[in-house]
Amino acid sequence: MRVLSGIQPTGRFHWGNFFGAIRQYIDLQHANEGYYFIADLHALTTVRDPQILRQNVRDAALDLLALGLDPAKATLFVQSHVPEVSELSWLLMTGTPMGLLERCHAYKEKKERGIKADAGLFTYPVLMAADILAYDSDMVPVGADQIQHIEVCRDLAGSFNHAYGETFVLPKAKVLEESAKVPGTDGQKMSKSYDNTLPLFGDTKAIRKQIMRITTDSRPMEDPKDPEGDHLFDLLRLVGSQADIDAMAETYRRGGFGYGEVKKAVAAASEEYFAAARQRRAELEQDVDYVDQVLRQGAEKARGKAADVLARAQRACGLR
Ligand code: TYM
Description:
15 helices, mainly alpha, Tyrosyl-Transfer RNA Synthetase, Rossmann fold
């Protein structure tokens, strides 16, 4: 099975990125052919500072490698290093109904929040469709917020195939039920644009502080509480051992505890959970050449595949 996914270098990766998506990349790399990329072209819709973008791309590569993406098993590359994808995006664009893009929630949400929309943001799902189709991807591991975009991709591929004959493979989204929508520190979906993220790497003290500031309700301490549907408990479930989770669930049901206790458990468990990756990241930081080499080789391999698919699509629609 060919598996592909992308992630935007718009800032440091957070728990939502990891538990919703990156964890899947790592699990799936063993038994599948994996293509994973850093979506710098997509990031251009929000990051307008070249130095920051460059730094973010490097950080993203370091993070992914430190978390366990293995270049011997999967192909890791930067989206813009494969220009074939942008060409393919144009071919798809000519068959994309405006209404389809107007309904896409990422665009709709940003517009509703008063963020000025440009054509890049509006056509973002078409580039994403090209990303997926360029590698004949069968499966796309993502968080729930990307499902709609994968549906758009299927729609565009289906209508291209209908117009020009079988050209593209129709992909399927793969979402983990228990972490499809990881909550942020305020209980809403964790997202950089809501400023409610818990980063994977960075100063542990600062992260601990962020965890201690997770919002909770103001019910009295002695009230028994239900761990189900409680975002603090949901975060513990992601990083805690089964023993931690069972003990805390029991405490919730009994009542008579402060949320501070749970937050401390979340902080301790997360430090342990990411300790090995932190260590690996510190080592990789010393070997920038290795990281560059991984990205260069990744792009070479990805380009080979994308060029074949682009040529197939060009032939189908009469460009060759
Ligand atoms: P991005 O960069 O916003 O997010 C990267 C991945 O993290 C997942 N994710 C979450 N999962 C669960 N809970 C959360 N709170 C949470 N926040 C983020 C996202 O679902 C995603 O899987 N458009 C994509 C990037 C992209 C792409 C692609 C993905 C470009 N081309 C082709 C797949 C295939 C995006 O903005 O992801």
